[in-house]
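[Discussion] Sanity-checking designs against the backbone

I'm trying to build intuition for which residues belong where. Below is a structure token string of 245 positions. I'd appreciate it if someone posts a full sequence so I can compare it with mine line by line.
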């Protein structure tokens, strides 16, 4: 097992990519804190059973982040892995984006990763090792129409990843990032019900299918395991070839 005796906090693990990652991590021997603002996180923890706890968490609130880290330390005594996965995506033309929508997207997708990292890094320094995986998006690498706040938050997360990787490499804290392409989850459900839009996404993806949550979970597993100890500050793009064209 790749994560035997490891402990992990996964944000947004009530659904989609986060949930698939939690289930995979559990199969690989990890003990897991499921942090989600939705009660769906409880179902993920129950499905895993032993060695998994749910805590209702809004990643954009420092107090919630404190409680999340505290639960991991109280239950497991250490924090080996942090997966900053919680995210939201809402679409508006830029010139019609309400300011509060911009703020909320940046606060969840970017500030949330900052707050959680800020909280766990001192523990990882004490432990002499740690892994942080940020879930960005190909929208952080290329432009997507009507997604100004989302693109900006995901591009910012890539920059934050590189910054943290450089700052904490000497502490043996690896910080990497994944840029998924179009993955079939609750986030994309509505878009993918639009047949024309789905077809356009399929045509933009050279690989002959769209992504599934498990495709990303395996990439997160690699960046969370000792197999990637010499990899830091990188963006692993898992998009079926979308950005290779
Ligand atoms: N689905 C895709 O095509 C795709 C592509 C690229 C990147 N991503 C990124 O992957 C990550 C996971 O997305 P997904 O597709 O699994 O979506 P999802 O909607 O299925 O899951 C997101 C989870 O995050 C939780 N969440 C949202 N805001 C939160 C907050 N403030 N605090 C705590 N939890 C919160 C939700 O409750 C949900 O459980 C996101 O960061 C998303 O931007 C998704």
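Best answer:
Here's mine. Compare freely.
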């Amino acid at each position: 097992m790749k994560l035997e005796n490891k402990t992990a906090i996964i944000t947004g693990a009530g659904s989609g990519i986060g949930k698939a990652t939690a289930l995979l991590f559990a199969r690989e021997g990890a003990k897991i804190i499921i942090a989600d603002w939705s009660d769906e996180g409880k179902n993920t923890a129950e499905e895993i059973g032993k060695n998994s706890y749910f805590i209702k968490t809004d990643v954009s609130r420092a107090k919630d982040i404190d409680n999340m880290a505290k639960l991991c330390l109280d239950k497991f005594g250490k924090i080996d892995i942090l997966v900053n996965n919680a995210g939201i995506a809402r679409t508006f033309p830029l010139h019609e984006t309400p300011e509060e929508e911009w703020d909320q997207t940046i606060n969840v997708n970017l500030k949330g990763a900052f707050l959680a990292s800020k909280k766990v890094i001192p523990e990882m320094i004490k432990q002499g090792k740690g892994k942080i995986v940020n879930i960005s998006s190909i929208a952080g690498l290329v432009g997507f129409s009507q997604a100004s706040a989302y693109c900006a938050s995901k591009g910012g997360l890539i920059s934050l990843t590189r910054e943290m990787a450089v700052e904490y490499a000497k502490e043996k804290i690896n910080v990497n990032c994944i840029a998924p392409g179009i993955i079939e989850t609750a986030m994309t459900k509505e878009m993918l019900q639009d047949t024309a839009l789905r077809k356009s996404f399929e045509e933009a993806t050279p690989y002959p299918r769209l992504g599934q949550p498990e495709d990303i979970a395996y990439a997160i597993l690699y960046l969370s395991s000792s197999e990637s100890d010499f990899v830091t500050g990188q963006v692993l793009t898992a998009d079926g070839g979308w950005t290779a064209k």
